[in-house]
């Protein structure tokens, strides 16, 4: 007496159940939210803006009726700046919370750890802030497997180009500088950045006298600055992100007479002035956006709305995360589905004017597949300077608001 | 060289409090780094966010360290020492774990409220002077002087006052002290107060000199721990010597070899000393 029900009845019941399931899922589809998982470093200033900006974009899209009737739902996870926590969050997002796509992290090491998981779980994945070249290089080298990963921020190679382009106009042409020392932290993203610097700085006329790489947990920068000063460069070209406050404060306290110019991610945060007790005065840093800088008509309204809602201006990764939610929504609309492969196809065709410029991705045959395109008319980046406690754009010319000026202890050699 | 001296003096100040606590009450306080960071962040928040001024900010930082030290003693250490359910021989392990967890709690709270970005305290004295052709921030000299003064004061306190002698006696023979009619708990409170002030001053000075973030908690505890172990647990003068050895070794490595390898020689030295003289340079046991 194992089977209570006769065979025929079982089959018809089963069919009815399957039928019910099909209709149920069909009906749910129209109203199903588009779920975006956001994995970020909630305790770091750069990372904290990511879920906030994504939520802001989702709220705006939902207020206008969502994407063809479907709302956008942001599911966020704090990764404590750890790769292991991020991988767990990614698995949970995909397997338990059934997200359609993931936006994650500003740390290259974390993104490189997540990339294989995007491939294994076949879930599209965009990073708003990591920079390592390896992210998009792996997409290029094994496209079929890694095509799910998109690099929604400039690669280190592009960042180096952006710094060099700005340095040519500002330092070489205007101030007649001739030499530089590269100072960067030892991390995945700075290896290609340093290679980029070494290649492009001599081309624009800045001789590289020395190259100092230091551990990201360095706290005392005195020896580093002493060493740099010893080679008497006109400028220090920076590549720092994990550190920022400490070298800047010590630069000021020790009155290092050489200006700092380059990538300094922490300097992109509005709180940097306070964190350093205004030692940031005169620091020049590359950015994709800045408060009050109208890179596109969308930049300023976004920054202001963000500030209204969260009390501070977004970090650089906030701008990119905000844009990402918008072009993901746009891609879902064009794909007509949240199916992973269709979404990847649609994302590849992205042509979206966001807050940082016009976003397009490099294709399958470019070396940096799925990374955002760098160039005039697309995204060029900005050079900003801390002046009187504010972040002021000084390059390129069309958005520049002021000339460069330095605190009195900086002695320009020319 | 002055850089090395300032760093060493700071290490010495931090480690002295740490070793004092161990010498007197046998407590290895693994929340040491967290208390220092709490002091620095409090000084930063008071001076830069609330705008109370540099001196008041520094005082608030020290006060916060004092409060946190008391909280550590009353909320974490004392309940474990008084507990009847924990066997005596296991209490040290419980104190270690308890203070470690307490330190992590403080660290996470700081990260939650103030983010894990580094903060720097506004220096009390600004500007630089040339010493033998080396441009030296006056704040660095100030740091070194304050550290030496505080250590000298501590020495006077311990060796020349009644309270100090009681503290010293308690570290030698706690039972004898109680037999003399002194309340051991009161001595512990005095020691924790001294410790809180020392850690607070060290934290605030560190915030001015190098800057701290919630990430500094672990390395700070570790450096105090290794200095104290190197110098001999419980030996104040051993800690002082060890602090200068470690401070100079680190600075010299950073200057002569590479800033990336800064901490490695000091750790190698620690391993070496442990191997040939497990009780540390001036250890008693």
For this entry, give a set of tags.
heterodimer, A: 414 residues, alpha/beta, seven-stranded mixed sheet, five-stranded parallel sheet, 14 helices, 14 strands, disordered N terminus, B: 285 residues, mainly alpha, two-stranded antiparallel sheet, 11 helices, globular
Can you put this structure into words, describing what you see?
- The complex is a heterodimer of chains A (414) and B (285).
- Chain A has 414 residues and is an alpha/beta fold.
- Chain A is built from 14 helices and 14 strands.
- In chain A, the strands form three sheets. Chain A has a seven-stranded mixed beta sheet.
- The longest helix of chain A has 25 residues, at 7-31.
- Chain B is mainly alpha-helical and 285 residues long.
- The mean pLDDT of chain B is 84.
- Chain A binds chain B through residues 43-45, 48, 81, 186, 212-215, 217-224, 226-227, 243-246, 249-250, 253-255, 266, 269, 271, 274-277, 279, and chain B through 3, 7, 47-49, 111-112, 115-123, 126-128, 135-137, 139, 210-211, 213-216, 219, 251, 254-255, 258-260, 262.
Low-confidence stretches of chain B: none
DSSP E strands of chain A, number:
14
* Gyration radius over CA of chain B: 19 Å
Strand order of the largest sheet of chain A: 7-6-8-9-10-13-14
How many beta strands in the DSSP annotation of chain B? Answer: 2
Radius of gyration of chain A: 24 Å
**Percentage of β-strand residues of chain B:** under 5%
- Shape type of chain B: globular
The structure class of chain A reads alpha/beta
Instruction: Give the oligomeric state of the chains in this entry, treating copies of one chain as homo and distinct chains as hetero.
Output: heterodimer
Can you list the strand order of the major beta sheet of chain B? Answer: 1-2
- Could you spell the SSE succession of chain A in H and E letters? HEHEHEHEHHEHEHEHEHEHEHHHEEEE
Query: How many DSSP helices of chain B?
Result: 11
Distance between the termini of chain B: 34 Å
Percent in helix of chain A:
40-55%
Characterize the main sheet of chain B: 2 strands, antiparallel
- Category by helix and strand content of chain B: mainly alpha
Largest interface: A-B, 37 and 37 residues
- Could you tell me how far the N terminus lies from the C terminus of chain A, measured between alpha carbons in angstroms? 99 Å
